[in-house]
Amino acid sequence: MSLSLDIPEELGDFLLRPGPASLLIRGESGTGKSLLALSLLNLFNGRRTLLTARAADPDVMARHSGATSRYGAVEVIAPDDPDAPVASGTQSAIGSAAEESTQSIVYPRFLDLAFRALRSAPPALIVFDSWEALASDPVGRPNRDAGTVPSRAELERELFSAWVKSSAHLVLVSTDSARSQLDYLADASCTLELSELDERPLRLLKFSKLRGGSGRSMEYPFTVWEGHFRCFAIAPHGYPLQSHRTDPDPEPTSPAMWPGSREFAEVFGRLPPGGLTIIEADRAVPLDVVRMLTVPMIASAIASRGVVIIAPPPSLTPEELWKPFSDSISPEAFAEQVFAVVTSRPKDAGPRWTGAIHSSDAARPMGFRFVPPRELGPSGGAHRADPEEFAAQLPDLEAFIGRSRLNHARSLSIGYAEGNLAIGRATGFPMDPDSYASTLRAYLVGEGAHGVAIGRPEEPLFDTIRSYAGLHLNLRAHKGRYILHATRPWSPSYVLAIAEDEAPGMGPYHLVPLT
Q1: Which of 144, 166, 238, 408 is deepest in the core (most CB within 10 A)?
Q2: Could you give the CA distance from residue 367 to residue 339 in angstroms, rounded to a whole number?
Q3: Is 348 helix (H, G, I), strand (E, B) or coil?
Q4: How many angstroms separate the CA atoms of 343 and 132, rounded?
């Protein structure tokens, strides 16, 4: 899973460090630099000053970040006449080196204002957005007062010379992609880039320098959706899939099944009867991440008195399949409404295990049907599976389907390609794309069920069902983050994430647009 953060953890550490501390933010126009800088201002606990080349507007924070600071007002300074000079040694607080100069050096007014902020009581954060826009105009222009006009490099050295004697945090936003002395002077630097993944935009924040930092991750995907900077860290190792908790169904009488997630329904819709959803997941995507999508679907089907048929992969044990539901769904309800065809026994089960999960006190009958390996005949069992013949090979499956039909229960089928192939081998009906398609479509159409087929990209077993799927999802891994998009119908990319302040099991996952 991905952890959704206001800012990267390294920048959170930067704000908490005692000053002086400095950061350089680079990036082309439109990459999100100003939103990141405004997020830093919003999160800093102390005096905050924004020097901006934008219009002098006290609502600049609200207009550009869509948020107000949790620590009160931010001082916004946009000099009306940035090239109005202030001589060093008189009104300016440039520093002792300038004050002792025998030559009158003329500085732009914004720099004088910056040093007034530097002299303020700590803690203080000063942001220049952008440094080039503020510093370039006055440099080299004729001045009303006699004196030497400093170059931009001289301005930068003066700024850092005074800053290092303060206890302030300094942030410079730069649109210049070329390396300069700022990269050397700043304690930390990061670059914001706009890239692509599967022909969809992907924004990346990359750290190139972290003096005294932990360096947890040198790269963060991020979004500027709705005018907010949000980035995505790798969730703690072994993030547990502890709960099936779902969003409530706003239309419980709808014939289409509820996916268990409001955000999934808003982006991709409900699960229509007779329809098919394909989820193709990279090999680098852990099984538990895929199950973040399917567990709420199963839980919602059970809650609405529907029935579920599951063909899990052999690597998923019955205990693991049952665990997300164990705290709130009774074994009786699970056994009544779920038919899970497993090809692996629990770890402590004997050779005659028939579907019970052992609790601390006794074995409890569950909704598992174990299909043991079968010795194939001389022909190798290589014949196509007739849907009825295939169902007859699985104990009680026909009866289970019959009960759901009599009860007019909505049906959900969750099938992993690995699980279906294992069941086919065990029953003597090895699956091929044609037999799998005929079996699946006969069930979905005949019972009005919705099917979810899960496999790897370009899974051969799905060759004949891709055109049938109304929803085709792709789950991609990107350096420990997991990104979801649809190819049918087309959709932008979404990060599969949990919020920073949510503990495992507190609620459904989030789909955060990568815009």
Answers
A1: 166
A2: 5
A3: coil
A4: 64
